[in-house]
């Protein structure tokens, strides 16, 4: 089956109590990460004019963030439709391996917090489908997220992408809680919920299995769930029609930010840890600090930050406040309880500039408070305020 229309279609959704204000609030929150990433990327750009590789990587990163913001803008315009239970779809050719890889990276911080091992298997040949990239990304991110959520800590997740009888098959398998046989027949119905969540509280809103089924079926596909029973894990398989429009570009499997060499190698002055559950934000902030001669390590969770600080003994920690699991204020309280860390400089990073949030952070033990997005000049000024030198 081949879908040729590029115009938006609209799929009926299960009736839910979702107000326009709820939609606007969620979108407003979600826009902070791409805006912060764009601001930081522009800061790095000014110092990377002679590095063609770095410029190209920054350009690709900014294109992804702009695409995300454009989709948010479209959703704002469609807020009333969404609140009324209508789902707009925009058709394009999608490279499925890249899409699944992006979904894995989107959920990676949550997977890491759960302590799971994630294995992703996909062939070397392009697998293209026709559909709405953002909605399909929602589908696979939701399935991977659920697999992590309903698997006990230190579990195993497997995601695979392969062609199968003229269709593209994506499988998400876990060794977790499993699904009762009676539940399998109703799991994609509205208001069906699984019990026994083992993972840490999820920071994502989730779109629900009923909506997963709706999106997949609108794309001419199907989704099925299998499980041998409670405690035996589960497997969700999505089948989508292959596109007949020919191959598209292969996915990038490396981290374009983390793979960049440190421009300040050999001229560092201070050891710094950057902690943020948003990968783009933490890596770009780390790069900005490296540009002014700092030695930087990164962590994606509060737990990782505590372990890293105790082991590496940095001089400064830039710490995001609104992290799921152990938030920034709790991380600070735990670090301040270690006498051997006396003198450690702890700087809060927050998307909120209100005085209440700032006062709460300072009361928890932070030495300084920065509002996202920050800038190279602001970082230099902040470090200088503590008597720490940076490279011009």
Helix/strand order, N-terminal first = EHHHHEEHEEHEEHHEEEHEHEHEHEH
Number of DSSP-assigned strands: 14
Cross-sheet strand order for the largest sheet: 4-6-7-9-8
Uncertain runs:
1-8, 11-18, 190-207, 249-267
Q: Can you walk through the features of this model?
A:
The protein contains 13 helices and 14 strands. The relative contact order is 0.12. It has 392 residues and is of the alpha/beta class. The protein starts with 8 loop residues before the first strand and ends in an 8-residue tail after the last helix. Strand 10 (271-275), helix 9 (279-291) and strand 11 (295-299) form a beta-alpha-beta unit. Helix 2 runs parallel beside helix 9 (279-291) and helix 10 (302-312) runs parallel beside helix 11 (328-336). Residues 1-8, 11-18, 190-207 and 249-267 have low confidence and may be disordered.
């Amino acid at each position: 089956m081949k879908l040729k229309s590029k115009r938006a279609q609209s799929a009926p959704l299960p009736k839910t109590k979702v107000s326009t204000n709820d939609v606007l609030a969620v979108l407003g929150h979600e826009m902070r990460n791409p805006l912060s990433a764009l601001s930081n990327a522009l800061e790095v750009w000014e110092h990377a004019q002679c590095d063609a590789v770095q410029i190209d990587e920054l350009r690709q990163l900014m294109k992804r963030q702009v695409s995300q913001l454009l989709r948010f803008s479209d959703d704002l315009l469609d807020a009333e439709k969404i609140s009324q239970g209508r789902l707009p779809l925009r058709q394009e050719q999608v490279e499925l391996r890249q899409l699944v890889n992006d979904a894995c990276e989107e959920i990676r911080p949550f997977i890491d917090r759960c302590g799971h091992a994630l294995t992703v298997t996909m062939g070397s040949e392009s697998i293209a489908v026709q559909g709405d990239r953002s909605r399909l990304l929602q589908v696979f991110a939701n399935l991977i997220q659920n697999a992590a959520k309903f698997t006990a800590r230190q579990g195993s997740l497997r995601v695979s992408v392969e062609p199968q009888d003229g269709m593209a098959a994506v499988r998400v398998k876990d060794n977790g809680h499993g699904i009762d046989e009676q539940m399998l027949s109703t799991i994609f119905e509205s208001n069906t919920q699984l019990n026994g969540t083992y993972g840490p509280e999820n920071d994502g809103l989730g779109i629900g299995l009923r909506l997963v089924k709706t999106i997949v079926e609108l794309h001419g596909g199907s989704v099925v769930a299998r499980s041998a029973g409670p405690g035996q894990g589960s497997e969700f398989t999505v089948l989508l029609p292959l596109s007949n429009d020919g191959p598209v570009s292969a996915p990038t499997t490396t981290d374009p930010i983390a793979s960049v060499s440190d421009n300040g190698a050999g001229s560092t002055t201070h050891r710094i840890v950057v902690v943020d559950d948003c990968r783009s934000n933490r890596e770009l902030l780390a790069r900005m600090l490296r540009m002014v001669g700092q030695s930087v390590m990164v962590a994606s969770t509060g737990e990782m930050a505590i372990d890293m600080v105790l082991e590496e003994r940095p001089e400064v920690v830039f710490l995001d406040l609104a992290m799921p699991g152990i938030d920034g204020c709790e991380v600070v309280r735990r670090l301040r309880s270690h006498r051997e860390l006396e003198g450690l400089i702890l700087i809060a990073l927050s998307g909120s500039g209100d005085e209440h949030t700032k006062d709460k952070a300072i009361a928890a033990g932070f030495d300084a408070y920065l509002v996202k997005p920050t800038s190279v000049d602001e970082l230099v000024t902040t470090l200088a305020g503590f008597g720490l030198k940076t490279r011009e």
